[in-house]
């Protein structure tokens, strides 16, 4: 993925504004609500708390994931408010990408002194 991807760049910009105004220390639910306001104000289309069904072969499981946002119908966004991102957070994002059958995503952490984010791409051909 190009580091200058305009869709993820716009989402990260909205998250940076939220972090600049609020800083760290709030619950994830606060950042979730405020990011939705910022995305709306910037004209970024999104859906919140999106249910992601999981498929095993031809069977749809009763278990499902729920991601924080899908923006532009093309980017999964998962929020965190923790001290630092871990490989488990990135793995969660990859699982969401698989379940949503969407190729790119962001995990954004508001809990550190500076905003943290990771962009990930899921390659459907590999």
Helix content: 25-40%
Low-confidence stretches: none
Strand content: 25-35%
Strand line-up of the largest beta sheet: 1-2-3-4-5
Calculate Rg over CA atoms: 14 Å
Q: CATH topology, what is it called? A: Lambda Exonuclease, Chain A
**Structural class, please?**
alpha+beta
Helix/strand order, N-terminal first: HHEEEHEE
Principal-axes shape call: globular
Supply the CATH architecture: Alpha-Beta Complex
Distance between the termini: 15 Å
Overall pLDDT level: 94
Question: How many strands, what sense, and barrel or not for the largest sheet?
Answer: 5 strands, mixed
How many domains in all?
1
CATH class: Alpha Beta
Count of discrete alpha- or pi-helical segments spanning 4 or more residues: 3
Number of strands: 5
Question: What is the topological layout?
Answer:
Blueprint: H1 6-22, H2 28-41, E1 46-56, E2 59-71, E3 75-80, H3 87-100, E4 104-109, E5 116-121
Parallel strand pairs: 3-4
Antiparallel strand pairs: 1-2, 2-3, 4-5
Helix pairs in contact: 1-2
């Amino acid at each position: 993925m190009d580091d200058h991807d305009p869709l993820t760049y716009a989402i990260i910009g909205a998250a940076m504004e939220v972090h600049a105004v609020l800083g760290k220390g709030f619950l994830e639910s606060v950042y979730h609500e405020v990011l939705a306001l910022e995305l709306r104000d910037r004209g970024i289309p999104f859906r919140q708390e999106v249910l992601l069904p999981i498929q095993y072969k031809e069977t749809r499981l009763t278990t499902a994931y729920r991601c924080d946002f899908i923006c532009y119908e093309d980017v999964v966004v998962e929020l965190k408010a923790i001290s630092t991102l871990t490989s488990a957070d990135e793995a969660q994002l990859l699982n969401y990408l698989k379940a949503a059958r969407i190729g790119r995503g962001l995990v954004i952490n508001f809990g550190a002194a500076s905003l943290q984010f990771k962009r990930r791409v899921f390659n459907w051909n590999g």
